[in-house]
């Protein structure tokens, strides 16, 4: 028996930094990753799909999101089993019990809406541990496994949340205990553990039978999610085997660069230029260094150019530290005089101070250089 393990679709997700048409394209990509599982199912011969929690971003969704998501699930073409997670728990406002969901839910979609066993095929079962609130008061996995014993049935445990060895917090009653998972595998009560919650693909423990699939489309930067955009194809044989398949098309990249002169800016320009699929790439820049006002204007011009090409590009303020120091004579060849020249001299003096007003003065001088570039030659 072969199936697809995926999780954390979080359909309806938005990213606050995406502007204009980038946000709709990102939302569409998340749905496309779901609908595209149909081709993967056909290519691999998978017989069903399990989604280990957080199918939706939350329970209060635009009806269009619900309808389009269900249509994407219909396109998969094989049974799809949805586990409610912490983002979309089975509480009083659950999307899964809404009139719209029930009316439009395709025949191939089953919500794992109770703790315990769901039959999948002769000799194959799912053991489900759905969330009923955002903060469980007990171990949902232990509840789901209660009474499940080895009897020759092949079983997949589908659960959501942090495993204790990864998220050690003795005060969290809903933590998943690795020892309990390994005991269930060792005893033959279950044969594979499909986990959700971590958005990056990850094996847990040493059995090779406990996995986080990660999200099929990236949700965070590469320092948080080193291996997103994948789903797992699982062969549920005597010794289950797991094969990752990349389905995501977006990237959230962090670039750390020193910027101390025009050569560093040119190097940054080259690195940004070489990144492929710019319309599906988000770039967070951690830049540190000291620049003249002219050089800072050149950096701003560089970032302005790429802001029109990438889904988003900008400074990571918490990790960036760029000092701007006006160079001697930097504003003597602008071709302006009189009152304007006196104002520039005053801005230069303020920009050289070590206080909050210096940043505004530096920004004003950088803008001046950009506006007068055709006359003075500043880039």
Can you walk through the features of this model?
The protein has 379 residues and is an alpha/beta fold. The protein folds into 2 domains: 2-246, 4-Layer Sandwich (Purple Acid Phosphatase, chain A, domain 2), CATH 3.60.21; 266-372, no CATH class. Helix content is 31%, strand content 22%. The protein is built from 11 helices and 16 strands. The protein has helices at 22-35, 37-44, 63-74, 99-104, 140-145, 178-187, 262-274, 293-307, 338-351, 356-371, 373-376, and strands at residues 2-6, 48-51, 80-82, 109-111, 116-121, 124-128, 154-160, 192-196, 202-203, 210-212, 230-235, 241-246, 251-258, 281-291, 312-315, 321-324. Strands 4-3-2-1-11-12 form a 6-stranded mixed β-sheet, covered by helices on one side. Strand 13, helix 7 (262-274) and strand 14 form a beta-alpha-beta unit. Helix 9 (338-351) crosses helix 10. It is elongated and about 85 Å long. The relative contact order is 0.10. Residues 1-165 form the Calcineurin-like phosphoesterase domain. Belongs to the SbcD family.
Q: How far is it from the N-terminal to the C-terminal residue, by CA? A: 62 Å
Q: Which structural category do the helix and sheet elements fall into?
A: alpha/beta
User: Strand tally, please?
Assistant: 16
Shape-level CATH architecture of the largest domain: 4-Layer Sandwich
Radius of gyration: 27 Å
